[in-house]
Specification:
The protein is of the alpha/beta class. It is about 40% helix and about 10% strand. The chain has helices spanning about 20-40, 55-65, 100-110, 125-135, 145-150, 155-170, 190-195, 200-205, and strands at about 45, 70, 80, 85-90, 115-120, 140. The protein has a 4-stranded parallel sheet with strand order 1-2-5-6. A two-stranded antiparallel sheet has the order 3-4. Helix 3 runs parallel beside helix 4 (about 125-135) and helix 4 (about 125-135) crosses helix 6. The longest helix has 18 residues, at about 20-40. The N and C termini lie far apart (about 55 Å). Bound molecules: flavin mononucleotide. Flavin mononucleotide binds near residues 93, 94, 123, 124 and 145.
Length: about 200
């Protein structure tokens, strides 16, 4: 693999129309194999969300001895300034609604691959979002955009929220509710599988 195509994040932009998704995925696995030979510390792989089958990809990461997966990374994206006719940077920070990405996949993967540690990243902006990701099965939740926007004090506010929420629900440890609402533990797992809006509209009629 051309080193210029691989930035310091483990991310390859698939811009080769002749290369299959499997070939791209194998490159990730080769990097992990190589790292595993060279270092002894545990490896957490921070993934992007462009994989056709994130579940399979996490399984492959596990098979290649990665110790954890972080779902998901966020990358620089470009936008077009239509007045200056120039390429500019798209919004760098996530939006709270981006939580849906990490929430769905943490829930699905934690249910089917409990042996893999999962860290959630993307869209956690407040305490409620962190609680949701823990309920979905995240081992840890990472914060970035909200700290840029609100300062590191936001971390203390989030901790306060979680503590108050746990008291209200009579939980004395996070392990008591971690994954309680993942794909396997809810009565109607279809809600995590739904991807079409049709039912949303019919339910409103
Ligand atoms: C300005 C900025 C710089 C980032 N730099 C890195 C980086 O160097 N390495 C990395 O793994 N992720 C980086 N990220 C991704 C974040 O760590 C995080 O995974 C992503 O923003 C999603 O989480 P959030 O919704 O809490 O922002 C960066 C994100 C932002 C907004």
């Amino acid at each position: 693999m051309d080193a210029r195509r691989m930035n310091r994040n483990l991310f390859i932009l698939p811009i080769d129309k002749d290369k299959t998704s499997g070939e791209y995925e194998n490159t990730y696995l080769e990097v992990i194999d190589d790292l595993k030979k060279k270092i002894k510390i545990p490896i957490a792989v921070k993934m992007g969300y462009y994989f056709t089958n994130p579940l399979r990809m996490v399984k492959e990461l596990y098979n290649h001895k990665a110790n954890a997966a972080v779902l998901f990374n966020r990358f620089y994206e470009s936008d077009i300034d239509i007045e200056k006719l120039e390429i500019k940077s798209a919004e760098v920070f996530s939006h709270p609604s981006d939580l849906r990405l990490s929430l769905r996949w943490i829930s699905l993967i934690s249910a089917q691959m409990p042996e893999m540690e999962l860290s959630a990243s993307t869209g956690a902006h407040d305490g409620a979002a962190v609680v949701k990701l823990l309920l979905a099965g995240a081992q840890t939740v990472q914060l970035c955009s909200t700290l840029y926007k609100n300062g590191v004090e936001q971390a203390a506010k989030i901790l306060e929220f979680i503590t108050e929420w746990m008291k209200r629900h009579e939980f004395s440890s996070i392990d008591e509710f971690r994954g309680a609402m993942n794909y396997k533990n809810i009565p109607d797992p279809d809600v995590y599988e739904r991807s079409q809006f049709m039912k949303y509209y019919s339910a409103r009629e």
